[in-house]
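User: quick one, sequence for these tokens?
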């Protein structure tokens, strides 16, 4: 299941998560984001050892700024409340998981 991550639920869903969290920074108008979305959905369905969240950069500008997002899609792996790896741009599923160290 994918969680919508906002400034309001960021602490409870990401910082305080006992599992690693994948954050997908995206926007409606972003073509590569739309291409990546089914892959993110598939990872969320297949992996119960991680939490998968989506951050709409148009609606959650403060979170995008906090993570220094300058290009989307950007996918960041967060462990223990801290970003550890990231992938920028579209990648196939295996490439994305490899880039994130999963």
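Assistant:
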């Amino acid at each position: 299941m994918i969680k919508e991550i906002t400034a309001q639920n960021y602490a409870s869903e990401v910082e305080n998560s006992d599992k690693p969290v994948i954050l997908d920074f995206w926007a409606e108008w972003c073509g590569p984001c739309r291409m990546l979305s089914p892959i993110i959905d598939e990872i969320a369905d297949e992996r119960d050892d991680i939490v998968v969240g989506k951050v709409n950069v148009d609606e959650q500008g403060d979170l995008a700024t906090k993570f220094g997002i300058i290009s989307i899609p950007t996918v960041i792996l967060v462990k223990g409340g801290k970003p550890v790896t990231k992938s920028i741009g579209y990648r196939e599923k295996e490439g994305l998981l490899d880039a994130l160290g999963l």
